[in-house]
Structure formats: C-alpha cells, structure tokens
Design a protein that fits this description.
187 residues, mainly beta, eight-stranded antiparallel beta barrel, two-stranded antiparallel ribbon, 2 helices
Length: 187
C-alpha cells in the first residue's frame, strides 16, 4: 500500500539540530568500469547535520565530505582520484551539500539540494527512505536512520578524464551512483 504524501509529511523527530553518528554511517559510490563491472568506493571522513523544525518544509540537511578520504581499496587509484584529473584536492579539498527542499513522494522522501564538487555547484535530488527511531542501549540517546540514493554526471562537475578503449568505448562511465546510510543523534 502506498501512503499518500500527506501521511509522510511530518517526520516523527524532535525539533532541533541532529548530529551525525559517523561510526554508524557511510558515504558510498559506484561507477561503471570498462562497461563490464562496477567499481565501488567510499569516503571515510564526512560530517552532516539534520535540522528538524515543526514541519517538513523546515527540515534542512548540510554535509561536507573530505575528498582526501576517498577509499576504493586501491591506493594508486585513490591517489589518481585526488589529482587534477578528478577532484583536484589542492584547490577543492571538500565536497559540500546543502538542502533546498524536502518533500514526501510516495513511500519515500525527496531531498533536493545543491552539491558542490571542484568548485562547481549543481542541483541534485536524492531519494530518501526513513528507517525510524530507536534509543541506543549504551547511551540512552535517540537515534534516527535514513538511506539516500541518487545519481550524478561527472561531466557536470568538470570531471571529464577518461581513457578511450577503441570502438567508441571509454574506460569510465559518466554516471556515478550515490548510496548513503546515515544515523543521526537527537539534540
């Protein structure tokens, strides 16, 4: 059964600034390589704040990612990704997200915002699933859980490095899939 948007509108979270529990959160991505497989990676250092107001329209999310913390499980590839061919860490060490709107869409939420990579800011929409809240048994604090997925074009952010393979094929796809698992701690 699909819930009407009005049934999802209020988040059952206390108002205030929720902090990210980085020990129970992850920022992951995947990209098609050689057209035959996906390479997956993650960022190990990131921060986010979830600000909850009295209505869905007042919910806001802000996040930053330390691009130097990229981890694809291969040191040489990670070093190349930090270079001017991709992230250009010397000039742009972080990726940033600032929400512009949150809305209920079916059984999920849509989180719209501005994503900045390499000094280029573009709008992006993430599909968000709210997992609910519970009290952590060790510290007695309320936690909330979310997953978010989306997709972006590398070219939109000026990341166009590629290797031609012949017959019109390239080593890397333009589309990058984003997968987030986030746990926030109540104020």
């Amino acid at each position: 059964m699909t819930a009407a948007p009005s049934e999802l509108a209020p988040l059952p979270l206390v108002p205030g600034s929720w902090t990210l529990d980085t020990a129970h959160s992850s920022v992951n991505f995947q990209i098609r390589h050689l057209g035959v497989t996906n390479v997956r990676g993650r960022f190990d250092t990131f921060a986010a704040t979830l600000t909850v107001g009295d209505a869905l329209e007042t919910v806001a999310v802000a996040a930053s990612i330390d691009l130097a913390s990229i981890n694809t499980n291969q040191a040489d590839r990670d070093a190349h990704l930090r270079s001017t061919d991709f992230f250009n860490l010397a000039e742009h060490p972080t990726m940033a997200f600032a929400s512009t709107a949150v809305s209920a869409e079916g059984e999920q939420y849509a989180l719209r915002g501005d994503l900045t990579i390499n000094g280029v800011t573009k709008p992006i929409t993430l599909a968000v699933e709210f997992y609910g809240t519970d009290t952590h048994p060790a510290d007695g604090r309320v936690r909330s859980g979310f997953s978010a997925t989306g997709e972006l074009s590398r070219a939109d952010y000026g990341i166009t490095f590629n290797l031609p393979l012949g017959a019109g094929k390239l080593a890397l796809a333009d589309k990058v899939k984003i997968e987030l698992d986030l746990q926030f701690i109540a104020p």
